[in-house]
Amino acid sequence: MSDSNLLKLDIATLSKKLRSKEISPKDIVTPLLKRIDALNPVLNAFITVTAEEALVQAEQAEAEIAAGQYRGPLHGIPVGLKDLIYTKGIKTTMGSAIYKDFIPDADASVVRKLKQAGAIVIGKLNTHEFAYGPTGDISYFGPVRNPYDTSKMTGGSSSGAGAAVASALCFGALGTDTGGSIRIPSSACGIVGMKPTFGRVSKHGVYPLAYTLDHIGPMTRTVQDNAELLGILAGYDPEDPFSVERAGEDFTRYIGEPIRGKVIGIPSTFYYDLIDDEIRAKIDDAINLLRTLGAEIRTVDIPVLSEVSWAQLKTIQSEAYAVHEEHFNSSAEKYHPEVLERLQVSAEAKGYEYVKAQDIRRRAQESFRHVFEHVDVLVTPTLPILPPNIGQKEIRINGRDEPVRASLLRLTGPTNLTGLPSLSVPCGFSKTGLPIGMQFIGRPFDEASLYQFAAAFEKEAAIPALRWEIK
Prior knowledge:
about 475 residues, two-stranded antiparallel ribbon, alpha/beta, eleven-stranded mixed sheet, about 15% strand, 13 strands
């Protein structure tokens, strides 16, 4: 098999070839590093490429597999890490001048899990500075460029992860999501991205943005790969005070089962109120396809949604400033001006506003809980807009000028506030060839059902999740 065909494979297919010894991990890592050398100067997805370490890990994985010590579906598979995730002995920058030379002395819990599974860390991926932004074009190391149009944003803050997975610079990646930072770039770059239930995946060893909104999750080319990767990441961690103790589970267990007779909820307001016409058309097509697969489509009301964006904003402002107060007071000049401006505004958030926001959070959780008594999942657009130009601040949606930043966050933020699992999957392309994503939202800790619906759609829709040629 040629190098290019090898790099186009998904994790599930690749792992079978590795386990059968048809190929070796080094057969994958070597051409992958060449592709990164060729394309990273264009896309700027990686801040640090761990070439030497990856080759050593590949040799170790090859020896283990040869000796019959196969560790599972990630053994010998190269993955990337958002550069907020601590890696022992490897630079971890947060996309910032403040941490541009920072080297952690321990791995994050999720990195330890990946290493135990035999995964190969190929490098650290660019991020919006301190993850405080949804555009992905603000980093000390420069903007990340969208593989489908390098003049466009990838979305953020897991910007490098979105670009790298979509352009075959790694086979999967870990991102973080505080207001949509896994799902936004997944939608904008045409890949699969899961924000799990709050507490499902440990955040220990990951630089925080907002303590009660942050999530860690997988970004991949396929639904199956995503479910496999979440299975490795999930689990209780006593080092994370927000970690929830639950029994281990196989997130792939419903993949392949029909969705006939299942009920899909379509929110009557908020999610469909102000979206680009092309996105609306693709989501309508996707809903019709889900209907042909036997699902019942039902309109539902979630009245508290009108208050959720404000509550999400006040929560992230209050918690982000608490994280950054020391650096803000001692090293303000080292922040990017836009991130600094966000922190200045965040410092003005009032205590009573934070308390009101938490009451809205509670009511929102109750509202969603009530809806899930009547439906199995919700379906919404992931983004209301197509990927904007790098640096663009306003965008026109059906004749109205709207802020890019708020628009990118609007449809993903509610499930950060409520902690509900939500999964973005590709559902088509615009007339100009830009990816469009659809979001599945589920009950707490019901990620397996989201994968069931997403896999059924993915199989029938057959939308490619790989951008091989980069213009």
